[in-house]
Request: fold
Amino acid sequence: MQNKQLSDVKGKELVAAGHALANALGMDTPLIEIAKMMAELATRLDCSLVRSDELEAQRDALATENGLAAKAVQTFCDVVGSNTDVIAEEMGIEGAKAILAAMSATGNMPATDAYLSSVRAEGVEMFAHFWEINCGHEKTFIGSEAKAFAAQLSAGKDGE
Reply:
């Protein structure tokens, strides 16, 4: 790791290097090396805490939306009760489709939509990377188009 900048080191490798430095500290350890390591560890910790806060907020929004969806389903089940066979027979397939359409039209779930868009974008980015690796080219038309589409998904466009 001596020839690498600390900012280029992956997280687990940086932690291991920090432990190794802590174990090797002695009177002859240059203060500049200690300072560099502590600064990089503090920066990474700060970034991790920010990301943790973002994920916690995302999780809370998803949990709220999930709770609302569960209440809607429970309300529907309470209304239907034990008469599901009779109601299904009377409603038919078109009635069931109408209920599902109404539920989806009223189910404004932006946190869920944003999360699903990010998952879709990640999948497309993985495909682009896979394509470029297996084609043996740094950039290919398909790979670059896939990356552009992933950027659209991340922005919340065409995610459905």
User: Anything to note?
Assistant: Residues 39 and 72 are 50 Å apart (CA to CA).
